[in-house]
Amino acid sequence: NRPQRMNLMDLISIRRWPAMLAVLAALWPEGADASSPGTLEPTAASRPLLAPPSGRVVHGMGQWEQYNVRLLARLPDAVRPAAQLLFVDIGDTPRGWRPQGVSARLEALARDGFIPVLDIGLRGNQPSPTELKQLADPLFGVDHDVAATTRYDGRLRDLATTIRDFGRPTLVRIGGEFNGWWNGYHPYAYPKAFRKIVDLFRTASVRNATFCWCYEPAAPGDFAETNALSEAKWYPGGEVVDWFGIDWFNAEDFSGPLTGRNGLSAHGRTRKFLDMAVAAGKPVIIAESGPCRYDLADAAQADAAWREWFGPYFRMIDERPEIQWFHLISYDWTRAGYSAQSGWKNNDLTADPRLLGRLLEQLGKPRYLHASEKEKLTGYPQTTHGGARSVNLSSSAPSPETVPAGRGRAGDTKERQAALAKWDDASRHRPQTGPGGTAWDSQYRSFIQTDESAVSKGLPTHAGAAQAILADAARSPQNWLQHLGWVLFIKHFSQAYRPASATADLKQLYEDLIDQQAGSTLGTTLLPFEGEARLTIHRNVVYGRTHPEMQRLDAYLVKSDQRTPVVIEIHGGGWRRGAKSQFVYPGDLIGAILRAGVSVISIDYRLSPNHTMPAPMQDVVRAVQFVRSKAGEWQLDPDRIAALGGSAGAHLAAWVALHGDLTKPDSLDAVERFSSRLTCFVVLSGPMDLTRVRPTELARQSLRGQDFAQAFTAAFGCTAEQFEQDPEIRQRLREASPLFLVTADDPPAFVMGAWGEDLAVLRDPPVPAVINDPHCVWHGVLLAEAMRKVNVPVVVRLGPEVGRDPTADTTAVVSFLRERIGSHIPPLGP
Question: What is the value of pTM for the model shown?
Answer without folding.
Answer: 0.47
